[in-house]
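Changelog note: in this version the structure field was regenerated for every chain. One regenerated record is shown below for reference.
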Amino acid sequence: MPATFPQAGRAWTALVLGVLAQTSGTVFVSVPAFLIPLLHTQRGMTLAQAGLLASAPTLGMVLTLIAWGALADRIGEKWVISGGLALTALATVGAMTARGYVALGLFFLLGGMASASTNSASGRVVVGWFPRERRGLAMGIRQMAQPLGVTVAAVTIPTLASAGGVGLALVVPLVLTALLAALCAIGIVNPPRAAPASTVRTTNPYRSGAFLWRIHAVSVLLVVPQFTLSTFGLIWLVTELRWAPLAAGLLVGLAQFVGAIGRIGVGILSDRLGSRVRPLRWVATSACVVMLLLAASGAAGWQAGAVVLLIAMTVTVADNGLAFTSVAEMAGSAWAGRALGVQNTGQFLAAAAVGPAVGALIGLVGYPLAFVGVAILPALSVPLIPHRHAEEDRL
């Protein structure tokens, strides 16, 4: 049955606010990665040390994603999103006034713990408000938030950090998280909790098959190239290709924006195919190929490597919406928040390790071989991707 006009309006309002909310949280989480040029080239931090600081918000998200998802299952999305963003704004104030890198890292950790609320709850909004035949599109739009947040951070944080240090750079996430906390409290309406009996899953979906576990494992493997490029792409352009920080930030921002549009495209494709896992397999294969191309261009010292980086950053973010939609559909309305929390936890646990681990690997073997090592992971994910769509598996 088609949605009524008020229901459609609430659905799209919740989706738009959910996207903006997660975008603002992503800006906060992305800030330390774009402080690396300042910390590494001007303040003497090693890449491994700067990468560890950059991973602090992501580690914070790992600690609370499942809890936020369970809370969204219990009380709904509205107050989880708005309350989490308000706490993120408070953590940002703490980071702005922090003295020393340990205190700064602690407030990044706390802010990440708070901002995780948007990751679990905004995905649940999509599942609750949109019918299955439009979820690929809606989740693709929702998944724009992460690359859009990185885009905002890429084009603002390096310049502000160069002009006024860490405190000035943090003004951007402070304004965004505080504003979106208020807007979400006013504008989001929780989707109806009731659903047809045939679509309600009250038993634990993790006990009914391996589908969810396999999608979680695939997503963990695919998130490594994504976060490798979002964390070290800018510093690679600056130190290896000798780009100015502003120009490098603009290129990274452009790549993230194109990637955000790409997520919508693959979401629409999955709706038309009636499958999330088939295009997910194509994306995983492409991620392996582009990482190898990036390694080759870096080894040759080509300035055209910047174009390859743009393509690679676009491809490596394309899988998220497909995986999230599969997880939400397989979990059902009663388990969607927790399942998306598990999905996010696995991804961000891997992402938190990317900063120090890949940073150390780059310091040991250089960028080209490090990119080859990262390319192995999407190759390993391909055979893990199920051959059946979540809805087909549930029948």
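Spot check on this record: The first helix runs from residue 5 to 34. Confidence is low (pLDDT under 50) at residues 195-201, 390-395.
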